[in-house]
Fold this protein.
Amino acid sequence: MSSDKKSNFSFGILFLMVLMVSIGCKKNNIDALPVFDSAKQAIKDDSLLVDYFKTNGLTDLVTKTSSGLYYRITKPVSGNMLIVAKDVVFTRYELRLLNETLIEENVTSATAFKFNPEKSNVIKAWKEGILLFRNGEEGYLYCPSGLGYGNTIQGKIPASTCLKFLIRVTNVE
C-alpha cells in the first residue's frame, strides 16, 4: 500500500472512530431520562390538594395523615370499631381526578369491591385510608400521586396525578 493510501485509510479509520463516539454520546444524551424527584412531586401534590380544598370549601373538613393522605368522613357511624388491616372490607367507590373526571366506579355494580388491606395489591392510599373508616361509613380519600400510581401512567390516569376516591364501606368481616 502506498503511503497516500495508508494515510487515507488511517484517516478513514480515525473518522469512523470519532463518528461512532459522537453518535454514542448523542444516543446516551437522548436516552437519558430526567431523574424523578419524589420529594419535589410530594410538595407539588400537596399544593394541588390544598388549592383544591380551598377552591371547594373543604379546607376545614379534611384531615391530613403523616403520609400526606387527606381524608374526610361524610357519613360517620358511631359504635363500630375502626377497620383493621386483617379485616376483609367490602366497598362501593368512585375514582375521580381532581378535575372531577370519573375514571372508574362500582357504585352501581351488583358486586362490592372486596379486599384485605394487609394482603391485597391495592394502592398505598387504600391500604392506609380504609383503616380510617368504620363499617357503614362513607367519605373521601384525597391521594397524592406517591400514594397512588406514582409517576407512571395507569390507564386513563396520567403520571404524577392526585386522585379523589369516594368510599362507602358496605361490610367488614
About this structure: The radius of gyration is 26 Å. The domain at 38-172 is CATH 3.10.50.40 (Chitinase A; domain 3). The helical segments are 3-31, 38-55, 124-129. Strands lie at 63-64, 70-75, 89-97, 102-105, 113-115, 138-143, 163-172.
